[in-house]
Structures are given as structure tokens and as C-alpha cells.
Amino acid sequence: MGKRDNRVAYMNLIAMARSRGPIQSSGPMIQDYLNRPRPTWEELKEQLEKKKKGSKALAEFEEKMNENWKKELEKHREKLLSGSESSSKKRQRKKKEKKKSGRYSSSSSSSSDSSSSSSDSEDEDKRQGKRKKKKKSRSHKSSESSMSETESDNKDSLKKKKKSKDSTEKEKVRAKKKKSSEE
Questions:
Q1: Which stretches are transmembrane (predicted)?
Q2: Rounded Cα–Cα distance for residues 109 and 96 (Å)
Q3: pTM for this entry
Q4: What digits encode the pLDDT tens for the residues 8-34?
Q5: Is 99 within 8 Å of 116 (Cβ atoms)?
Q6: What CA–CA distance (Å, rounded) separates 119 from 102?
Q7: Comparison of pLDDT for 43 and 124, the residue scoring more
Q8: Torsion over CA: 55, 59, 60, 61 (sign)
Q9: Is 122 in contact with 106 (CB distance < 8 Å)?
């Protein structure tokens, strides 16, 4: 029984690759990239100047777009202005109609030049008249409900008094703090 041979064959990878010959690659090689045609310094300066100036076609296109945009803006402004004028006319018509209806409804305003403030006061008078009617209908309720309402009113007034006392006390404390901080 002899010793087992555990030697391994050495393979020189570089030598094997050279023996196969040159590899045909599908894409460009590094040498192709380095040997590419390059512009001279003067040509490069000319290209940069052209880029700074911009193309004529682009400049013309931008001018046309600006003109179109200005036209659209003018149209839109006209629409808005005409719309605001028509809305102001509508408001004036509504005011005139209110004035006319106010003249017929109330006997107090018989003058031909009634202002919007007088019509507003008339509207308020009507509202107050409605409120008085509602209060009168409430008074027909039983005396028990009126008693409970007066009690709740008394409670509310007490709460308000307490709140006002608390607020005055807080103000006094603040004033004392300010004086002590100033000293």
C-alpha cells in the first residue's frame, strides 16, 4: 500500500487565453473609445457659443407662444370684466326692486328717494315684529314654564357675575406680578 497522490495540476489561465487567440467582442473596446475622433479647442468654443445663442427656430416658437398667451389673457380679462359689470348691474336692479317693494309695504317711507339704509331698518322692524309675536304666543303657556324660565335666567346671571369677579381678580394678580417684576 503506497501513499495516495494528492498533487493537483497547475493551470496558467493567462497562457491558456493566449493560446485560444483573440476574442471577438460584440461591443466597442477601450481602444475604440480612446481613438475616437475629438473636436479641437476652437471647434469646441464655436459649439459652446452656438448653444448660448440658441436656435432661431426655438426663439421664433417661443415668441409665437408668448403672443398666443397674451391674446388668451386679454380674452379672459374681457370675459371677467364683462362678467363683473353684469353682476354689478344685477345687484343694482335687486336694490331698486327692494326699494320699490319697501315703499308699497310700509306707510312711513313715502318719499321717492328712499336709501338702502331705510330699507334695512324696515327689514329689522319686520323681524322685531315677528319676534314679539313669538314671545306673545309663549306667554300663553302655563305659569310653571315661565317660573322655570325665570329661575334659569337667574342662574345664568349668577354665573356671569361669578365670571366677571374671577376675571377682575385675575387682572389684579397680573398687575401685582408686573409691579414686582419691575421692582
A1: none
A2: 15
A3: 0.22
A4: 889 999 999 999 888 877 888 888 999
A5: yes
A6: 6
A7: 43
A8: positive
A9: yes
Q: How far from 47 is each of 20, 43, 131, CA to CA, in Å?
A: 46, 6, 86
Specify the range with the lowest mean pLDDT, choosing from 12-21, 88-97, 106-115: 106-115
Q: Which cell is 89 given?
A: 348691474
Farthest CA pair distance, the chain: 143
Exposure of 138 in the CB half-sphere (CA atoms within 13 A): 10
> What grid cell was written down for 73?
389673457
Nearest-angstrom CA–CA distance, 72 and 44: 42
- Give dist(CA 26, CA 104) in Å, integer: 99
Are residues 106 and 121 in contact, defined by beta-carbon separation less than 8 angstroms?
no
Distance, CA of 183 to CA of 177 (rounded, Å): 10
